[in-house]
Write a structure and sequence with these properties.
The protein has 379 residues and is of the alpha+beta class. It is built from eleven helices and 15 strands. The chain folds into two domains: 191 residues, Aminopeptidase, CATH 3.40.630.30; 139 residues, Aminopeptidase (3-Layer(aba) Sandwich). Helix 2 packs antiparallel against helix 9, helix 7 crosses helix 10 and helix 8 crosses helix 9.
Length: 379
């Protein structure tokens, strides 16, 4: 007897907050950024939603028995801020040609340039089809999936979406047992430079690594102050609200790691990390006192040291930053996928992306040659 065919139903939800957290996290797996706790904290804190230009439009796929089988964190965007894959030039060109670029559909983790799953569950093609239908039926210019993992990018490319590449810098363990083992893999000149940087950064300071419930209200107050300083300098105003930090502290404490630098018992800088299954993700950093090389110490070296001590194989310290190369971070390709309705506009973007990929390939070749590892350690 043939199995009964189960009908597939696609729905839109006004966010993940009202969805069953267990059903969602069953699809999200170990990735902390697509977890129900992280995404719902963005919504509940007002970091996304009304007045932010990020309107949640979560795509859901259910079977005939209303069981959630696939999902994608999606948003209607009225600007291109907080994405880290810059399409401002595309928007300007489309607007100059008489089109309307915004709103656009963005499948992403807001304000988070961390590669990972975006098409959750076992039916990525249905999610992509649903995104295309949303765009066409609502006369939206385009749909975008930013920082999608390799599997999601392959599914999108198979469907004819345009694939864009970028470069980030990730640290990868080669079986190091200690930080000194990592340093031993570097050239002598780079090894000495890192030791000098660490010595200068640590002079007269105390450092603490706090995890989970050890991060209390006072520490969150300091981290918010640090984050505000960085956010105001980088973007004009911080993307995240103060409440967001309280909420993730309540909802996903076991995934949080805070490095603090203190002078005379008073915090002067901090770096907040999220802990994944095999990677440490550096996310937010700031300081209220200028100390040479302190950013490198808190965000790079302490992260590497903690990852080695806790058996993690990777450290991802955010977007951009060729200066990470000299500190042992290696270039990796990141990907985004783009569905563009207007055929002329799509052709123009496709030509641009071909040229951009050629430039990125050349840059990757140069960056790999600039790695600080000894020849015997770089294989």
């Amino acid at each position: 007897m043939a199995d009964r065919e189960i009908e597939v139903v696609a729905k839109l939800s006004s966010g993940v907050s009202g969805l069953n957290s267990f059903a969602w996290d069953r699809l999200a797996g170990d990735d902390p950024f697509v977890s129900h706790a992280f995404l719902s904290s963005l919504e509940a804190s007002g970091s996304v939603g009304k007045g932010t230009g990020w309107t949640p439009a979560t795509i859901l796929i259910e079977d005939g028995e209303d069981h959630l089988t696939s999902a994608a964190p999606a948003y209607l965007k009225t600007h291109s801020q907080g994405e880290y894959v810059f399409d401002h030039a595309w928007a300007d060109a489309f607007e100059r040609a008489g089109g309307t670029y915004y709103p656009k559909l963005q499948i992403a983790v807001p304000f988070t340039p961390v590669p990972g799953p975006r098409l959750l569950g076992r039916q990525p093609q249905h999610l992509l089809g649903a995104a295309e239908a949303i765009v066409r039926q609502n006369e939206i210019s385009s749909a975008h999936i930013t920082f999608v993992d390799d599997a999601g990018a392959a599914e999108a490319e198979r469907r004819g979406w345009l694939i864009r590449e970028g470069i980030q810098y990730h640290w990868a363990s080669r079986g190091y047992a200690t930080f000194d083992d990592f340093l031993a893999a570097l050239t002598s000149r780079k090894r000495k430079a890192i030791r000098k940087e660490r010595e200068a950064a640590r002079a007269g300071l105390e450092f603490r690594a706090l995890r989970g419930a050890d991060i209390g209200p006072d520490e969150w107050d300091w981290m918010w102050r640090f984050y505000q300083d960085t956010g105001s300098r980088k973007w004009g105003h911080p993307y995240l609200t103060r409440e967001f930090f309280d909420l993730i502290g309540e909802r996903m404490a076991d995934k949080l790691l805070l490095f603090l630098a203190l002078r005379d018992g008073q915090p002067i800088a901090g770096a907040l990390n999220l802990i994944g299954a095999d990677a440490l993700y550096g996310r937010y950093w700031g300081a209220v006192d200028e100390v040479p090389n302190l950013h490198f110490e808190l965000c790079y070296y302490q992260a590497i040291e903690w990852a080695i001590d806790h058996g993690l194989t990777s450290v991802q310290a955010g977007a951009q930053g060729e200066h990470k190369i000299a500190r042992g971070y290696e270039p990796v390709i990141t990907r985004s996928a783009h569905f563009v309705v207007d055929p002329g506009f799509r052709d123009a973007i496709e030509r641009f992306l071909i040229e951009e990929r050629q430039a990125i390939a050349a840059e990757m070749d140069w960056l790999r040659r600039a790695l600080p590892y000894r020849m015997s350690s770089s294989a």
